[in-house]
Amino acid sequence: MKKLTILFLISALFSCGEKENQASSNILENLTFSVDTILVDSGDELMLLEGDYIGNYALSANRDRMYIFSEKAYILQEVDLDKLKLIGKKEFEKEGPNGVGEYIQAFNQLNNGSLVFSNFKGTGVFTLDGKNQNQYFLKSSEIEGIDLKDDFPITSKARIFGDGSFLFGINPMEKDYQLVEVNLIEKSGRQLPLNALNGTRDFQTMLTSNGPSIFYSISPRLEWVNNQVLVSSPSTNEIYILNSTQDSLQHIAFSHKLVPLAKTGTYNPNSTSREEFLQIMEDITNQVNFGKFHWDNSTKHYFRLSHIGLPKPDPDSKKKYENFIHVYNQEFELIGESKLEGIDQKLNDDCFFKDGKLWSYVNVEDELGFAVFTFDF
After folding, report:
1. How many other CB atoms are there within 10 angstroms of residue 195's CB atom?
2. Which residues have CB under 8 Å from 107's CB, separation 6+?
3. N or C terminus of the chain: which is more exposed, having fewer CB within 10 Å?
4. Burial class (CB in 10 A: 0-12, 13-18, 19+), 374
């Protein structure tokens, strides 16, 4: 195993972001951390990666396996995260009875080991060797309790989690976002409002003149974290939580102190020039961007990264960012936050917690690698 080591030591002092009924102390007040960059041994095989982004990947529940799906080659790559070794490749079908489709929107693993592929047409459950177990092409007319405009298919951001009994999607067709929950066994469902995330729509623009249309937007995301569904948005700190013991969504707004609580401003949804389109993208990027939630089973804490883009001094300069980490207890109370000093590259959402450490994907000369953060607080 090749290993590159970078060490950062920081001590950040600040007051904690408070939420009603939470402690005033900040557990990250004296945070220190180190970063080790480790590489996966691919042997004689060539890993199929997507450049600076890992692409479609799924993790086993205990974090001992990673499955990376190449949509270019339709090959599933299995990585042993304990031994840091590529242990297998399996070719999947694009079309036909066992076809996973194209333009994969989401990819995850169920509790029983099956893989879920989601795209614009539907959502399918497959074995690890590519055999179709179930595929769902649902419309609201087929589901009791669901009523979507023009019988719109329940495919947008559709996900199947956990034991595979429920399908979740985000309805983008109404003025207000909705979480659509479908009981796949009973063929019944419900629609739950996501009003706190509606502002996400403000941060998009389209350029239709001077060539092919170009579209830029951010959107709410569905997550499966610690056996519950989370709905969040890059544009705001606010989230919704749904677990098996709840009849309704739980809405939480956090009182962060180190970063703004949400993106702000209004932007032209129809850019009139390429220059305006790029400027809008830059302005939105330079505001706070909230990442996904991550559960660390060793500390029993939730973690979330956020970043803020810094203006480029000139067009040819490399884009730099300020990165932050936030920590919450099991009740989703904010108990600490810190700026990650010394890191000016954007930490994207291709990361996860394993054995109490944060693993963030890096591409090292087309080899699969991870920057592994060890936090001491």
Report:
1. 12
2. 56, 57, 58, 67, 69, 115, 116, 117, 118
3. N
4. middle
Q: CA 230: distance to chain centroid?
A: 11
158-190 pLDDT tens trace: 999 999 999 999 987 778 999 999 999 999 999
Question: pLDDT at position 315, please?
Answer: 83
3 state DSSP class of 281: helix
Pair 109, 121: CB distance under 8 Å: no
Distance, in Å, from the CA atom of 342 to the CA atom of 331, rounded to the nearest integer, reads: 31
- Name 207's bridge partners: 214, 271
Gap between the Cα atoms of 340 and 322, Å rounded: 8
pTM over 0.85: yes
CA distance 176 to 287: 23
Residue with the two structure tokens 């309704």: 248
**CB-hemisphere CA count at 13 Å for 356?**
8
* Paired tokens of 302: 């939730």
In angstroms, the CA 184 to CA 350 distance is 29
Which residues share a beta bridge with 325? 305, 338
DSSP letter string, 203-214: SEEEE-SSSS-E
Q: How far apart, in whole angstroms, are the C-alpha atoms of residue 368 and residue 375?
A: 22
Minimal CA–CA distance to 17: which of 196, 260, 239?
Answer: 260
Greatest pairwise CA separation for the chain in angstroms: 58
CA distance 356 to 347: 18
